[in-house]
Amino acid sequence: MVNVNDDKPFLIPEGGYRHSDFSNVVPPPSDKSVVRWRYIDLARLVALLNDKKLHFSRADVFKDRHEGSITKPMWEKLKIQLAKRPELRKTMSNFFERYMKESAFVSCWCMEPESEAMWKLYCGDNYGVAITVVYRDIEAFFINQGLLMTKVKYLNYQVEEFPLDMSFYPLFHKRQAFAHEKEVRIIKWCSEHIPGKRVRGHTPTEEEKRIDEYELKRGEELKVERGTGILLEFDVEKLIRNIVVHPYATEWYFEVVKVAVEKFTPKLVGKVRWSSMRTEPLY
């Protein structure tokens, strides 16, 4: 749990965390040869193939208002600690809302098997694709760049808890209502680019208050400059296993996808295929 009596701020340590630091809290799959899916529209596919970069969304722009939050029992325990230091309560709320969510950029993937629910959620008009990757390949590619990757753990936020000794843990946990997503997340931390009010274990001095005000103002400026997402290098030819076309799409749409892939990444044309859900019944 967060130690509000500690003089050191509750922040990510310099250099970030290693993937092995949190495998006991949000363990990776036992079989790393499994395939991961990302359902996207054709425009996003073209952008990915053209730019050779993967889009990561800032965590505070997701629709789920509970994104990056803690559970009820965790908050109750935290309130007991904060009761001893009332001046820190607003600062702690500011930490979860600003520092953590505005500092994290997330790329969301789904575990196997292929899901009609995910097709409807991300490609509801019957036009879209899914790119598939092998967990081991994409993990090695991004972990070597200092990113974090593992599957999301789904909890009952009314009664369950998770460790809070590392500030990114909330972003790898979600409410059970989202369990159908079977999500795997890749997270890039950009905390060094978002100044904000520090979580101190003591009442800030006047000088510290002035520093906080300046950093919060600069943080808002940087937030605008940076926008709601970032692009990171992505070796499409090496990492993409298949480009799967929506099961309910038309034949002409399948050809459009092939033409787009051939234009931007010719080596991947042979990996364009129909969804396995499109097969005819045996009777």
Residue ranges: pLDDT <50 for 5 or more in a row?
A: 1-20
Series of secondary-structure elements, N-terminal to C-terminal: EHEHHEHEHEEEEHEHEHE
Helix content, binned percent: 25-40%
- Broad shape: elongated
User: How much is the average pLDDT?
Assistant: 82
Write structural notes for this entry.
This protein has 283 residues and is α+β, with helices and mostly antiparallel strands. Helix content is 33%, strand content 19%. The protein has helices spanning 42-51, 72-83, 89-103, 116-122, 135-143, 206-226, 236-239, 251-264; strands at residues 35-40, 53-58, 104-111, 129-134, 148-151, 153-155, 173-175, 183-189, 229-233, 242-245, 272-274. β10, α8 (251-264) and β11 (272-274) form a beta-alpha-beta unit. The chain is elongated and about 70 Å long. Residues 1-20 have low confidence and may be disordered.
List strands and helices in order, with pairings:
Elements: E1 35-40, H1 42-51, E2 53-58, H2 72-83, H3 89-103, E3 104-111, H4 116-122, E4 129-134, H5 135-143, E5 148-151, E6 153-155, E7 173-175, E8 183-189, H6 206-226, E9 229-233, H7 236-239, E10 242-245, H8 251-264, E11 272-274
Helix pairs in contact: 1-8
Question: Keywords, please?
Answer:
11 strands; 283 residues; single chain; disordered N terminus; nine-stranded mixed sheet; two-stranded parallel ribbon; alpha+beta
Concise account of the structure shown:
With about 280 residues, the protein is α+β, with helices and mostly antiparallel strands. The protein has 8 helices and 11 strands.
